[in-house]
Amino acid sequence: MPRVMLMVGTRKGVFLLFASVDRRLWEVRGPLFKGVQVHHVAYAPAHGAVVAAGTSAWWGPGLKVSTDLGETWQDRLTLRFAEGRGHAVERIWIVTEGRRLDGAPVLWAGVDPGALFASDDAGATWQEVQALTDHSTRERWTPGAGGLMVHSICPDRDRPGRLTVGVSAAGVFRTDDGGESWAPKNVGIRADFLPDKFPEVGQCVHHMEMHPSNSDVLYQQNHCGVYRTDNGGDTWTDISEGLPARFGFSLAVHPHDGDTIFVVPAESAECRITPDGAFRIYRSRDRGNSWEALTQGLPQVNAHQLVLRAAMATDSLDPVGVYVGTEGGHLLASRDGGDHWEVLFNWLPPVFSIQAAVLD
Question: Strands, DSSP E only, in 68-140?
Fold first, then answer.
């Protein structure tokens, strides 16, 4: 029977949650890698692997890879800059599966300081994508509060050579030749904290996702609003109207209806909690042209939480499941596309990331 696997990265390790497709009773495995800050856990089906990206206060950044759904793990400590490059990997923020130009599977890893790595052997070895690190605009990139990081990676399903990444705080960059060259893609995106409000680079992307069936459509939650592009990033449209705040971190896209998206706004950059003490998840069914607040089962008073950039995800079932983790350690779920919500687990460590996979 198919089952659902939730991969939850937290400040104190990894939790793997398994349930049948009714998503009512969950088996919890974890915490794994106790004490390690795990920024992202990803399922890479073409590699048959679960990959966890973490940082230890003692041993620094590293990857752990499991090919048996978390029963056993192997360390992958080879994600390093070559000697003489003048950089060191501070944190690994995201791992995403994609394809090379020839269609072969590849793992992409985004790191601090603002760089991208690739692996063709399930994480055993990694190569820096130097053209992004050495981009001509790099002197205008600045660290955000979490550092200078590649945190969003969107492989194009229709064009294997195209890859779009989000860098904080530098903006959106796209390659159409498999990483040999990169172009900034930030037209229409504000940077209110800079003298030039619409610069070529320097915008602070918080999270970016791609439409599941139209790869020209991408969405991003930015430091300065929520945006959509309909042309692969060449220009962006501000879709923040109707939200209680422009600031926020998380964004998720419906896997079967890419016109439906979810965000959780935060009050402001200075006060990173839900507006008005009400925990509301906002859904748009028309690519951000209008928004509705989802509140059923969610606290609407004295709920002062933050949802971090990778802490919202969907599964691929019908009706779709939507999952949200908070900095306070709450794990929330909806089994009906966001109409109704419940608390799956409480008292977890602060949640950094969630990813869902449906296993055959």
Answer: 74-76, 91-99, 105-112, 115-119, 127-128
User: What was the pLDDT predicted at 144?
Assistant: 86
Query: What residue type is assigned to position 174 of the chain?
Result: R
Contacts of 59 (CB under 8 A, 6+ apart): none
User: How far apart, in whole angstroms, are the C-alpha atoms of residue 94 and residue 19?
Assistant: 25
Instruction: Tell me whether the omega of the peptide bond preceding residue 319 falls within 30 degrees of 0, making it cis.
Output: yes
Cα–Cα distance for residue pair 170/144, rounded to 1 Å: 9
Question: How are beta strands 171-175 and 281-284 bridged, if at all?
Answer: unpaired
Site of tokens 């994609």: 98
Using CA atoms, how far apart are residues 166 and 204, in angstroms rounded to an integer? 9
- pLDDT for 56-112, tens place per residue? 988 899 999 999 999 999 998 779 999 999 999 999 999 999 999 998 999 999 999
Tokens of 162: 């195209």
Contact 201, 141 (CB under 8 A): yes
pLDDT tens digits along 260-301? 999 999 999 999 999 999 999 999 999 999 999 999 999 999
Q: What is the DSSP string of 1-14?
A: --EEEEEEEETTEE
The H or E element spanning position 131 is helix 130-133
Phi-psi sector, 266: left (phi>0), alpha (psi -120 to 50), beta: beta
Distance CA 117, CA 262 (A): 29
